[in-house]
Amino acid sequence: MKDLVQSVELGVSQRKGIKATRPKVWLKNELVRVGLAESLCTYVMMVFGLGSVAQVVTGQGAFGQYLSINLGFGLGVAMGIHVGGKVSGAHMNAAVSFTMCTFGRLTWRMLPVYVFAQLLGSFLAAGTVYAVYYEAIHDYCGGNLTVTGVKATAGIFATYPAPYLSLLAGFIDQVFGTAMLLLCLMALSDQKNKPAAAGSEPVAVGLLVLLIGISLGSNSGYAINPTRDIAPRVFTAVAGWGADVFRAGNGWWWVPLVAPPIGGVLGAGVYKALVELHHPPLSEQDGGLVEDLISPSLTCSSER
């Protein structure tokens, strides 16, 4: 209660123009601030995304269909950007972070911080969704936690390929899906092209994820994100599904781990090579209107 009163007094004094000191508990270390924000926004995104899958699977179609899963992840991404966008950039995806490092928009020393934070947020989200839907999951599968089959439930947490999909085709699927993600993210943040309007970035990125889901999601669940997939997969391995989560799909687990970073660099590289590098000088573009270039860059790919 004392801390709450101090916080209220601080806010009031700031509104009145009175100089006030920040509480000592405020974090000043950039690595810690970025890590906490990235963990939290990833957690938010994953809770909504995995929760939407759990609701569809355990509800057996009564509480949503495939489209609601796409909406769950798309809106979850949008909410995640609102949570951490101004602090960490809200990558929520190791492929995004790796691509930003590759193109100099994020320092390499920050990559381990982002990856660890995303893994932590995803793992905790998987645990949370399992706890919330524990009884529903066990009622649905009769207490038999399986990875494949009619009553399989491991797919609530991690992605698995369709029965017809080979590892090569799945690898290409993940490379292409992530390439489209990063290509479009580069476009949305390109201030010399047609970027997302200032303040609309979360919605724009959420719609992009929704678009990928409804167009490229049926082959393997469009993980397009290493940390989104491997952390919940590890959780299911220790929560009762066992080692089958790594054996299923002819050892599918490594595909969403390796393919997305490759696809991310390819997609961003294609946009940069075909569009971004060929922008005319500022003085020649739009009559030199600087106003078009002062809107903040897309949070998901902001420089740090």
Briefly say what this structure is:
The chain has 304 residues and is mainly alpha-helical. The protein contains eleven helices and no strands.
Describe the structure.
The protein has 304 residues and is an all-alpha fold. It has a single domain, classed as Glycerol uptake facilitator protein, CATH 1.20.1080.10. Helix content is 61%, strand content 0%. The chain is built from eleven helices and no strands. Helix 2 (30-59) runs antiparallel to helix 3 and helix 5 packs across helix 9. The protein starts with a helix and ends in a 30-residue tail after the last helix. The model is unreliable at 1-15 and 286-304 (pLDDT under 50).
Write the layout of secondary structure elements.
Elements (H helix, E strand, L loop, with lengths): L1 H14 L14 H30 L6 H19 L9 H9 L8 H22 L1 H8 L25 H22 L12 H16 L9 H16 L2 H8 L3 H20 L30
Helix pairs in contact: 2-3, 2-5, 2-6, 3-8, 4-5, 4-11, 5-9, 7-8, 7-11, 9-11
Main sheet? Answer: none
Question: Got a strand count?
Answer: 0
- Mean pLDDT value: 88
Could you give me the name of the CATH homologous superfamily? Glycerol uptake facilitator protein
How many structural domains? 1
Rounded radius of gyration (Å)? 21 Å
- In CATH, the architecture is Up-down Bundle
Calculate the terminal CA-CA distance, rounded to whole Å: 36 Å
* Share of residues in helices: 55-70%
Q: Which CATH class?
A: Mainly Alpha
